[in-house]
Amino acid sequence: MKPVTVGVLGLGTVGGGTVNVLKRNAGEIARRAGREIVVTRASARDLNRTRICATDGITLTADPFEIVNDPDIDVVVELIGGYDLAKQLVLTAIANGKHVVTANKALIALHGNEIFAEASKKGVMVMFEAAVAGGIPIIKAIREGLAGNRIKWLAGIINGTGNFILTEMRDKGRDFADVLGEAQALGYAEADPTFDVEGIDAGHKLTILASIAFGIPLQFEKVFTEGITKITRLDVEYAEALGYRIKNLGIARKTEEGIELRVHPTLIPKRRLIANVDGVMNAVLVCGDAVGPTLYYGAGAGAEPTASAVVADLVDVVRAMTSDPENRVPHLAFQADAIADIPVLPVDEIKTAYYLRLTAEDKPGVLADVSRILAAHNISIEALIQKEPPQGETSVPIIMLTQLTLEKEMNAAIAAIEALTTVSGKVARIRLETLG
């Protein structure tokens, strides 16, 4: 049978890894797919650059549109990243009747609804396993492996840079800025680390996971994101003392009122497996009504881990190329006419527990004032630590864990606490999830 011809857009880290995996495992891949999968064309900005892959047998071009318009290409693999150019190339490939595989989480999160609609019209597939958690097959696990479940919630460490920073802060007692500099030097973080440390990258991935988990449209603009830049070494130490670890989690939960979509630093009990996922590794915890909690762990980035997911998508495309489009696995797990626009809750309506750290004068009545404010907003204290004041100082740090409460109640309580003359500075607030 004629080999399936592939055009790769972008020969960087993931593109080079994809070519390497396809060549090295060609025989095994053909046995699984039923046909050979061969990269015949690839595009790159700099054709003379040294690459991690051999390019013999591959026609290189600096113009990616040559590939998406080439009638001899069956599948386009988009690995250039970004928004505008990638979207234009993908839509052109679809219009030309080509299947698409992409690792571009931002593209799917922001433009996936339009892309999938066009793909359905043309009867082609758009696969995106590599867009979330690198080599972990989390899309397939939720979309197919857990298809018999109602997904209750999911929580994931889905940004390796943030996880590396928080791990180093905990293990070595370092400050955020210090570890961020090392992450940039090691290539884990970009020169502009905003997407990683402010939760935007994780927000893109959470958007995709929530859509396939709950059968809702992709809607990144409704994801609440809060970064890790305000986490201090003290917060990490106090969390440990209380039996928790701080992880930057993407959380999606289906409630009677609507869907929660949020990315933020989170205290989780040290006994949870996901609390022990360290460094640049990723993990996603998914809770279904039939199966209960299931954990998926692995490398969330890198040349060959991500290439593993890209090649798996290519194999799925080849397997399904001869099937009727209506009999294929839906792009977003649910049939297109069954996608439900369930409301996404504003963050004020989300209910969770909290870690609070404040600095107050060391004198009678201060803690009572804080407790009264919390009680007035229906907030119960679960645990409390009050430290001795440093020598020569009159202010002490007070650390509290609360029980479940609405975010808007906590916002009001924090504002009232910060208005006390006996409390100095801002109240540090980190959300807490038991993931039980």
Automatic annotation (TrEMBL):
SUPFAM superfamilies: ACT-like (SSF55021), Glyceraldehyde-3-phosphate dehydrogenase-like, C-terminal domain (SSF55347), NAD(P)-binding Rossmann-fold domains (SSF51735). Pathway: Amino-acid biosynthesis; L-methionine biosynthesis via de novo pathway; L-homoserine from L-aspartate: step 3/3; Amino-acid biosynthesis; L-threonine biosynthesis; L-threonine from L-aspartate: step 3/5. It is an enzyme of class 1 (oxidoreductase). The keyword Amino-acid biosynthesis applies. The keyword Amino-acid biosynthesis applies. Coiled coil: none annotated. PANTHER family: HOMOSERINE DEHYDROGENASE. This is Homoserine dehydrogenase. It comes from Methylomonas fluvii. The lineage of its organism: Bacteria, Pseudomonadati, Pseudomonadota, Gammaproteobacteria, Methylococcales.
